[in-house]
Write a structure and sequence with these properties.
- GO terms for molecular function: protein tyrosine phosphatase activity.
- Pfam families: Y_phosphatase.
- Belongs to the protein-tyrosine phosphatase family. Receptor class 4 subfamily.
- This is Receptor-type tyrosine-protein phosphatase alpha.
- It is an enzyme of class 3 (hydrolase).
- The structure is a single chain.
- With about 725 residues, the protein is of the alpha+beta class.
- The protein has three domains: about 100 residues, no CATH class; about 300 residues, Protein-Tyrosine Phosphatase, Chain A, CATH 3.90.190; about 270 residues, Protein-Tyrosine Phosphatase, Chain A (Alpha-Beta Complex), CATH 3.90.190.10.
- It has 16 helices and 30 strands.
- Strands 19-20-21-29-22-28-27-26-25 form a nine-stranded mixed beta sheet, with helices on both faces. An eight-stranded mixed beta sheet has the order 7-8-16-9-15-14-13-12, with helices on both faces. Strands 1-2-3 form a three-stranded antiparallel beta sheet, with no helix packed on it.
- A hairpin with a 2-residue loop joins strand 23 and strand 24.
- The longest helix is centred in the first third of the chain and has 34 residues.
- The protein is globular, with a radius of gyration of 36 Å.
Length: about 725
């Protein structure tokens, strides 16, 4: 019970109070306590000219104590007082309503999904209102020339500002219903209970006769940049929804499917396989046959022919549908670099027919990776059209079409990384048919740059910051003596770890880095320095632990009077290194390299393995090889050995494990892609190497050598026409 008092000036003398004791519901004006009583029966004892307004359970009771001569004045005051009370009530109700909505939208923007529920918090329904669609100009569009500066600012202090920005995103920016998705008949069609399509943006299937709610599928229309319904964001099909998925593809006239998940991740089913491995399968009334499949570095392309079964017209038209399956998204987090995703997206844009229906994009839930792909696509289009990007605004808008689009702060940062990568370096992929003309441009001087295009390209690579703060283990005092060159120390995130020796601390370190970018093979290389005399045992422990069967040696033991590598193999008989024994079984000389077959035995385990060493002699002490023939031959020999031995990591070393080692890794990767796709990207290949180990491909000469070897390789083969 609340009492509001208003005192009005009055000249009349106050009437005497009723002698009967009364209890006031208003707060006492003296220190004497009084007990409350019912507002409708409380007697009021106030001086003349006082208005008492009682508010109780949303009802108003007003008592007037007036002099008879002040009626006109008090009529005005009553009206004003009533108006003030009404305004007060409206404000209170508004604040309560705002608080309710704010709480509804306060759920975390970042939770993981498992089959059927969210790991951290199981939400039985999608929160329908968080904030109004983006009128928040705290995060306005960014001009592209400010992108790098803003990225650096927001990534400081462990991405603190990026996390704040992501958490400022409205979870679901509008009030919207999910009635169709929540029907009992449709619950089994949803992979996750908290990721449901809104009624206003969901994809409607044609209803099947006699099948209730057969128009439902967990999929939503999503706008692109200035293109309505460019995409359909869908969950990964379940076994129960395979027929519905292909009905949607047919009815929407979709020609392109983008898949951004693997069928299983962390032993969990993320998506049912909705295509045949070979031949054809029938899903409902849609027959799907595999026409072609191409497995590439970061993704697989599958081409399907789809056809309606039992078409009453008798014509049975066929359609071609291309699936782009991105296979390089890790089980946790985001890809190491956005390069693969940018190339993938470029391929999707190239293939999608101009007059096709929406591009169907799906991961598992159809929000996290799916949203990330869609936002990158839209912002690249915006960057080209307006020279600015509006990630915050665009994510807000598409979250009004499907909840939780872009699900984690890591995905949000990854979007910015992809945009910055594209802005700084552009598209550096080349068709092999254009390599010669591209080299001519690289050798030509750049106006106003004071150097040629090739040198300018290499300068971009050398400007990549070496992250010295991420080399903790290699810089420990106990490990410093294990490094041949102090400027080349492996990063923590991809250093090769070897088993700890019993009873000895700091024995898991070796100066070696995993290099991961080869087709279908994680950790394809172990790039390492040439062993020192006191690290030979560590070297062989590494070979044994990681089951490496191929070693590529790109240095002589001594060059220009200095030791470059300790001899870690036996020339005759058996070499013993701790628990390891190395025996030379065969040695064969070729034109530019020596092949040594070694038998490596772990005496503690009483097991042996065959290891083949390829020792390249064609690299001069100063500069680079005179031609690429020897390098092409040794790369071919190593790849053949890998096919026979099971594709475990290839160990590659020179002296410091950077210059020649990086050149070999780069060339091996580039030539493999030339053979598979007829495409090369020397710049991005070397850039990826340098992000994984400092100073990989160390000199401009070595960088130029990569281009020259690729040109020699193309010129040497008569099937060059196949690349056209």
């Amino acid at each position: 019970l609340t009492t509001v008092k208003t005192t009005v000036l009055a000249t009349a003398e106050a009437p005497k109070p009723d002698p009967t004791p009364t209890q006031s519901t208003s707060e006492p004006e003296t220190d004497t306590p009084s007990a409350p009583t019912d507002a409708t029966t409380a007697d009021i004892s106030e001086p003349p000219g006082t208005i008492c307004v009682f508010i109780c359970n949303c009802s108003l009771t007003t008592h007037f104590v007036l002099d008879s001569d002040d009626t006109a004045v008090m009529a005005v005051m009553v009206a004003l007082s009533s108006l003030l009370v009404i305004v007060f009530i409206i404000i209170v109700l508004y604040m309560l309503r705002f608080k309710k909505y704010k709480q509804a939208g306060s759920h975390s923007n970042s939770f993981r999904l498992t089959n059927g529920r969210a790991d951290d918090t199981e939400l039985q329904s999608v929160p329908l209102l968080a904030r109004s669609p983006s009128t928040n100009r705290k995060y306005p569009p960014l001009p592209v020339d400010k992108l790098e500066e803003e990225m650096n600012r927001r990534m400081a202090d462990d991405n603190k500002l990026f996390r704040e920005e992501f958490n400022a995103l409205p979870v679901c920016p509008i009030q919207a219903s999910c009635d169709a998705a929540s029907k009992e008949e449709n619950k089994e069609k949803n992979r996750y209970v908290n990721i449901l399509p809104y009624d206003h943006s969901r994809v409607h299937l044609t209803s099947l006769e006699g099948v209730p709610d057969s128009d439902y599928i967990n999929a939503s229309y999503i706008n692109g940049y200035q293109e309505k319904n460019k995409f359909i964001a869908a969950q990964g099909p379940k076994e129960e929804t395979l027929n519905d998925f292909w009905r949607m593809i047919w009815e929407q006239n979709t020609a392109t499917i983008v898949m951004v998940t693997n069928l299983k991740e962390r032993k969990e089913c993320k998506c049912a396989q909705y295509w045949p491995d070979q031949g054809c399968w029938t899903y409902g009334n849609i027959r799907v046959s595999v026409e072609d499949m191409m497995i590439l570095v970061d993704y697989t392309i599958r081409k399907f022919c789809i056809q309606q079964v039992g078409d009453v017209s008798g014509k049975k038209p066929q359609r071609l549908v291309t699936q782009f399956h991105f296979t390089s998204w890790p089980d946790f987090g985001v890809p190491f670099t956005p390069i693969g995703m940018l190339k993938f997206l470029k391929k999707v844009k190239t293939y999608n027919p101009q007059y096709a229906g929406p591009i169907v994009v799906h991961c598992s839930a159809g929000v996290g990776r799916t949203g990330t792909f869609i936002v990158i696509d839209a912002m690249l289009d915006m960057m080209g059209a307006e020279r600015k990007v509006d990630v915050f605004g665009f994510v807000t808008r598409i979250r009004a079409q499907r909840c939780q689009m872009v699900q984690t702060d890591m995905q949000y940062v990854f979007i910015f990384q992809a945009l910055l990568e594209h802005y700084l370096y552009g598209d550096t992929e080349l068709e092999v048919t254009s390599l010669e003309s591209h080299l001519n441009k690289l050798y030509a001087p750049l106006p106003g740059a004071g150097c040629g295009g090739l040198e300018a390209e290499f300068k971009k690579l050398t400007s990549i910051k070496i992250q010295n703060d991420k080399m903790r283990t290699g810089n420990l005092p106990a490990n410093m003596k294990k490094n041949r060159v102090l400027q080349i120390i492996p990063y923590e995130f991809n250093r090769v770890i070897i088993p700890v020796k019993r009873g000895e601390e700091n024995t898991d370190y070796i100066n070696a880095s995993f290099i991961d970018f080869i087709q279908m093979q994680k950790d394809s290389y172990m790039a390492c320095q040439g062993p020192l005399q006191h690290t030979i045992e560590d070297f062989w422990r590494m070979i044994w632990e990681w089951r490496s069967c191929s070693i590529v040696t790109l240095t002589e033991l001594e060059e220009r009077g200095q030791e470059k590598c300790a001899q870690y193999w036996s020339s005759d008989g058996v070499m013993v290194c701790g628990d390891m024994s190395i025996e030379l079984k065969r040695e064969e000389e070729s034109e530019s390299y020596t092949v040594r077959d070694l038998l490596v035995t772990n005496n503690r385990e009483n097991k042996s393995r065959a290891v083949r060493q390829f020792h390249f002699h064609g690299w001069p002490e100063v500069g680079i090889p005179s031609d690429g023939k020897g390098m092409i031959n040794i790369i071919a020999a190593v790849q053949k050995q890998q096919q026979q031995s099971g594709n475990h990591p290839i160990t590659v070393h020179c002296s410091a494990g950077a210059g020649r080692t990086g050149t070999f890794c780069a060339l091996s990767t580039v030539l493999e892609r030339v053979k598979a796709e007829g495409i090369l990207d020397v710049f991005q290949t070397v850039k990826s190497l340098r992000l994984q180990r400092p100073h990989m491909v160390q000199t401009l000469e070595q960088y130029e050598f990569c281009y020259k070897v690729v040109q020699e390789y193309i010129d040497a083969f008569s099937d060059y026409a196949n690349f056209k």
